[in-house]
Specification:
- 57% of the residues lie in helices and 6% in strands.
- By secondary structure, it is mainly alpha-helical.
- The chain has one domain: Orthogonal Bundle (Arc Repressor Mutant, subunit A), CATH 1.10.10.
- The protein has a two-stranded antiparallel sheet with strand order 1-2.
- Helix 2 crosses helix 4.
- The longest helix has 22 residues.
- The protein is globular, with a radius of gyration of 14 Å.
């Protein structure tokens, strides 16, 4: 259910994404020996799943960046873009 605060967050994320538009392929890496081959951020041990989980649990981007100073805003949006692209690919295969 969308409410005012959810709409604000969506608008804010859209604004930030346009401002920090990134090509996730330059940021998200997959290495067989790291985190079981899961997609990670810039070769670090932080996975796309980690970032999505933090966002889903209610952490703001500012809270994530404060907790994990090795990340930046582009990393967070690269993870979101990667997840969206993967979802789009799965949907196209299923249809």
């Amino acid at each position: 259910m969308l409410n005012f605060s959810n709409c604000f967050i969506i608008d804010y994320l859209y604004y930030i994404k346009k401002k920090y538009m990134v090509d996730y392929r330059k940021i998200i890496t997959i290495e067989a020996g790291k985190r079981g081959g899961k997609p990670c951020v810039r070769g670090m041990r932080i996975t796309v799943y980690d970032i999505l989980s933090w966002l889903a649990s209610g952490m703001s981007t500012d809270e994530i960046l404060e907790e994990y100073p090795e990340l930046n805003v582009e990393d967070i949006f690269a993870a979101l873009s990667f997840a969206a692209d993967r979802e789009r690919s799965i949907y196209q295969i299923a249809v």
